[in-house]
Specification:
363 residues; 0% strand; mainly alpha
Length: 363
């Protein structure tokens, strides 16, 4: 796992959450009326803040655009994989045989997630900053929120990448398929991570390190266990409902649509699925996610005191190393996306596919 040291520090919060479940008998149940009631009970205050501070919607919309663009970029890798591979997968029903292509898919997916996590981290921190500024009696503007979001951006970017990677893998694991190896323990650890780290974004936005953020998140859970679990799991339930509706809508859309048969059937299918995915991600990113972030920020400041944060002073001429790393990764991703054929990427992937298929046929 990339960023093992940072993940280890954050796992403290996950393990504490898991221990809390075991000690108290509390279970991270998605289908829980109690958790949904807790979540809906927090809606009023969060909704009022969003109505009063319109910049929250700006950051939420920007976050959705990043997610939508990232999906389109990710789909491109499917166009580079020959149809013969998908036919072989269908016959063998064993994706594990395609080791090299699995590495390509994993590498491409991680690159997309890491690049997308940079602007998403900024948006999450900026939305959280709105509550901090309002609590301090200061005006909340886009520029001021961005200033606070950039204070601890390296750690925010790392956490968002780790969290997004865990989320993406959990979503893929849950998709219906012939062989589903996801267990109840996997779900418990996933929600222990989500609940245990729910205070990390507000802590990092306040300028703290990974270990201190994990401790703050644990303190949040220890001080308000019912409320913390209710907010997180209520949010998960609403997102789960949106996901189920999106999945059913995608199936209906696929059955009524045409154009994903024949050559490049898999690629064409995922391109067609962009519409229902964009709609569902808009509901989550623009409507639900800001509400959740504001709820968590409000809960965090009730338990953990946040000092008044001064504007970030940037030294003239100092190299923004994090921004440079992001720019290099983003330019690399876009170059591969737009000029993959000219750079020989398609031919390279086809050669890997041929090697994988020779190996699969020999088994």
């Amino acid at each position: 796992m990339p960023f093992a040291a940072e993940r280890a520090a954050l796992n403290v919060a996950r393990d504490e959450a898991k221990g809390l479940f075991e000690r108290t008998g509390e279970k991270p149940e998605v289908l829980s009326e109690k958790n949904l009631s807790t979540f809906t009970g927090e809606l009023g205050g969060a909704f009022r803040l969003i109505l009063e501070e319109k910049e929250i919607l700006f950051f939420a919309a920007l976050q959705w655009l990043v997610i939508a663009a990232s999906y389109l970029v990710w789909v491109q890798v499917l166009d580079w994989i020959p149809d013969s591979v998908w036919e072989e997968v269908r016959k063998k029903d064993n994706k594990a045989s395609f080791t090299l292509l699995n590495l390509v898919l994993t590498g491409w997916s991680f690159l997309v997630v890491m690049v997308a996590s940079y602007p998403i981290a900024i948006c999450n921190a900026a939305i959280t900053s709105v509550h901090y500024l309002r609590s301090a009696g200061e005006p909340s503007t886009i520029a001021r929120c961005l200033d606070l979001a950039f204070r601890n951006l390296p750690r925010l970017w790392l956490f968002t990448t780790i969290d997004a990677w865990i989320t993406v893998n959990a979503i893929l694991d849950r998709l219906p398929r012939k062989r589903n190896n996801r267990t109840a323990l996997d779900e418990l650890l996933y929600y222990a991570w989500k609940i245990g780290t729910m205070g990390v974004v507000p802590a990092l936005t306040a300028g703290k390190g990974f270990l201190d953020s994990a401790k703050d998140s644990v303190a949040l859970l220890a001080a308000r266990p019912g409320r913390a679990i209710g907010i997180r799991m209520g949010y998960s339930l609403v997102c789960w409902c949106v996901g189920v509706l999106a999945y059913l809508g995608a199936l209906a859309y696929a059955m009524s649509a045409s154009g994903f048969g024949g050559p490049k059937a898999v690629y064409n299918f995922y391109v067609l699925m962009a519409l229902p995915i964009f709609v569902s991600s808009a509901v989550v990113a623009v409507l639900l996610r800001p509400l959740y972030l504001v709820m968590v920020a409000r809960l965090y400041t009730e338990v953990i005191p946040v000092e008044r944060m001064q504007p970030l002073r940037r030294e003239q001429g100092k190299l923004d190393l994090v921004g440079l790393v992001f720019a290099v990764l983003a330019c690399t991703l876009l170059a591969l996306y737009f000029f993959g054929d000219q750079l020989g990427l398609r031919g390279w992937i086809e050669s890997l596919a041929e090697r994988d298929m020779r190996g699969a046929r020999g088994r």
